[in-house]
Amino acid sequence: MSDYRIQGATGEWEVVIGLEVHAQVTSNAKLFSGAATAFGAEPNTQVSLVDAAMPGMLPVPNRECIRQAVRTGMAIDAQINKWSRFDRKNYFYADLPQGYQISQLYHPLVGEGAIDISLDEKNPDASGKRIGVERIHVEQDAGKLMHDQHPTRSYVDLNRSGVALMEIVSKPDMASPAEAGAYLRKLRSILRYVGSCDGNMEEGSMRADVNVSVRKPGDPLGTRTETKNVNSVRFVMAVVEQEARRQVDVLEEGGRIVQETRLYDPDRNETRSMRSKEDAHDYRYFPDPDLLPLELDDAFLAECRASLPELPDTKRARYQALGITPYGAAVLTAEVENARWFDTLLDAGAKPVAAANWVTSELFGALNRLGKGLDESPVGPTQAAELLGLVADGTLSGTLAKQVFEVMLETGQGAGAIVEERGLKQTSDTGAIEKVIADVMAANPNQLEQYRGGKEALFGFFVGQTMKAMGGKANPAVVNELLKKALS
């Protein structure tokens, strides 16, 4: 149970949240036509006769779109309905040439499932919650109206018309902005692992309709509003916070909440009314007469299941079993690119714990500094494995490894070549180290006297001076061992 509450003049209020996420299916074409779906194409260059609703044009389902939706359902342990049906949702809008949208109301492709979320980034195992998913149905997207191209006219771009969407409908199980954000992040991660949606919210290929209502603790559900087409996790959390606050203010002033569709204005950080919310019967749904029901056979379902990759939660558990901390495992599995990069690093022979620590601190820190993503990293996983191997076998100390890594970032050279070329190999030669220790002790008689007089904290001083004298190339473990002997 979430402890998130809104403090009002009449007491505390709870917020109840459900999300309807529209995820564009990764496929070779649109849901019912062969038209392309590339982002950023010139307006009206990706429109087939079916998308434009020319007379006599009949829709044909794209098998890949159905397959991707089924795989997504399997990834959240949802019920897959072997029999499903398309319905017509009737409404007139300028960017919907047919005058109806082909969707699934009564018999969706995917039934109930669930997504596990965590609210504690440092310890993902500590505070989990299961969010129910009511259904996933497939439907076609509408086109896009452009109001800023002409002073008195609106233009229509039909490139998106007919693009395949999965509508993933959660149950109203979320009770705070943080839970809504965690759910959307986790869902996006799963979709990207499965490969059924690229999750690019800024390009509109994943967007959320945010349903919010408020109530006094223990009361029945309140009237909800739906804020449409929210395109970032941060904005979804802001919508929950602002809309819940607005509803509380309305109710406490004696008003009532109207079931309506709203829009979010990120510049003003507020929601505003768009239109009264229609109910399902207002759309006059009926089975689409141009499309036969979908019937999935066991072989198709088996192929879908066999094609699923290792999913985020399973991968995180595997990493933790290798000794990686829960936080490290969560960071490495949050994005599919991170996990694939790290798996390649392990396959190249890197030790799991050392590799995880290096990736999450050194590599991510360097890329952040350079303003680059992991896909742009000048150092690949096999190069990183070579560097970590030189640390593991004692060739490089941690300090020297940092120096070598910086050169790798600048030049793209391999770690071994840099070590040879620049003479950066760590020395464990006891004779050479003992000579430097003797010189350091001779040069610092006062500190030597104080140390032998009981000031043991000066041990670090002697380690530092020895390492400095050897240009950071001495093996720290050998230095410590020889210094203890020399100073005693």
TrEMBL record:
Species this protein is from: Sphingomonas alpina
Keywords per UniProt: ATP-binding, Ligase, Nucleotide-binding, Protein biosynthesis, Transferase
Entry function: Allows the formation of correctly charged Asn-tRNA(Asn) or Gln-tRNA(Gln) through the transamidation of misacylated Asp-tRNA(Asn) or Glu-tRNA(Gln) in organisms which lack either or both of asparaginyl-tRNA or glutaminyl-tRNA synthetases. The reaction takes place in the presence of glutamine and ATP through an activated phospho-Asp-tRNA(Asn) or phospho-Glu-tRNA(Gln).
Quaternary structure and interacting proteins, as annotated: Heterotrimer of A, B and C subunits.
Catalytic reactions on record: L-glutamyl-tRNA(Gln) + L-glutamine + ATP + H2O = L-glutaminyl-tRNA(Gln) + L-glutamate + ADP + phosphate + H(+); L-aspartyl-tRNA(Asn) + L-glutamine + ATP + H2O = L-asparaginyl-tRNA(Asn) + L-glutamate + ADP + phosphate + 2 H(+)
Domain of life of the native organism: Bacteria
Domain Asn/Gln amidotransferase: 340-487
Name recorded for this polypeptide: Aspartyl/glutamyl-tRNA(Asn/Gln) amidotransferase subunit B
Keyword Protein biosynthesis attributed: yes
UniProt EC number: 6.3.5.-
SUPFAM superfamilies named among the record's database cross-references: GatB/YqeY motif, Glutamine synthetase/guanido kinase
One GO MF term attached to the UniProt entry: ATP binding
Keyword rRNA-binding: no
Similarity comment: family membership: Belongs to the GatB/GatE family. GatB subfamily.
GO biological process: glutaminyl-tRNAGln biosynthesis via transamidation; translation
Pfam families per record: GatB_N, GatB_Yqey
